[in-house]
Amino acid sequence: MIDNQWPRWEVFKKDSDRKPHQSVGSIHAADPEHALLNARNVYVRRPSAVSLWVVLTEQIFSKTREELEHKPLEKMEDAGQTAVSYCIFRKFGNRRRMVFMDHIGQVDATSPENALLEAINQFGTDQDLAWWIFPESAVVKSEAGIEEAWFAPAKTKSYKKQSKYGGAVEKIQKGNYE
Q1: How far apart are CA 17 and CA 27, in angstroms?
Q2: Which positions ≥6 away from 84 have C-beta within 8 Å?
Q3: Are 10 and 53 in contact (CB under 8 A)?
Q4: Which residue from 168, 63, 174 is spatially nearest to 120, judged by alpha carbons?
Q5: In the beta sheet, which residues pair with residue 62?
Q6: 114 with 123: CB under 8 angstroms?
Q7: What does pLDDT average to over the chain?
Q8: pLDDT value at position 2?
Q9: Which of 101, 2, 121, 93 shows the shortest CA–CA distance to 53?
Q10: In what order do the strands lie in the sheet with 51-56?
Q11: What pLDDT, on the 0 to 100 scale, is given for residue 167?
Q12: Section 169-173 average pLDDT
């Protein structure tokens, strides 16, 4: 079977300056600019946001708690390699359904595996379920200073829950289109 889908991008949204970037889902897009526009259209239609990041899914190194318990990571040799900055995301629990991962910081390392080891040393493993690690250079960010143009319109859109439509959904499901 021929794969004819655009590449998959993970979307990270920051709701306010006081909150971290959080993963909210994924989209398919042809290029980075297209990915940012798709992310805005899908994930910022009604909720507020101050920043969006997108990262190609193939750039993300991920490990679950179970994977780390069964096969612990070992520090990789880094002779002659230059350390780069890695973004560290961690899933703490299953309570929040709309957010998968929280950005908890950055570390400098020579490989994703070494970045994860450094993150575990620096941030601990309290109640972590999964980790995502990717180079900061892989992140495509919404531009600073465009918040008003990109995100302000979302604040003025009204949102109605499905139950507030006066039974219209139930009428349609029953075939009563009046």
Answers
A1: 24
A2: 108, 109, 110, 135, 136, 137
A3: no
A4: 63
A5: 132
A6: no
A7: 82
A8: 66
A9: 101
A10: 61-64, 130-135, 84-91, 102-109, 22-28, 8-14, 51-56, 140-141
A11: 60
A12: 60
Distance spanning both ends of the chain, measured CA to CA: 45
Ranking 73-77, 89-93, 124-128, 163-167 by mean pLDDT, the lowest is 163-167
Distance CA 20, CA 22 (A): 6
Which structure tokens are listed for 75? Answer: 């520090």
Find the range with the poorest average confidence among 80-84, 104-108, 113-117, 146-150: 146-150
Using only C-alpha atoms, what is the Rg of the chain? 20
Instruction: Give tens-digit pLDDT for 66-96.
Output: 888 888 777 777 767 899 999 999 987 766 5
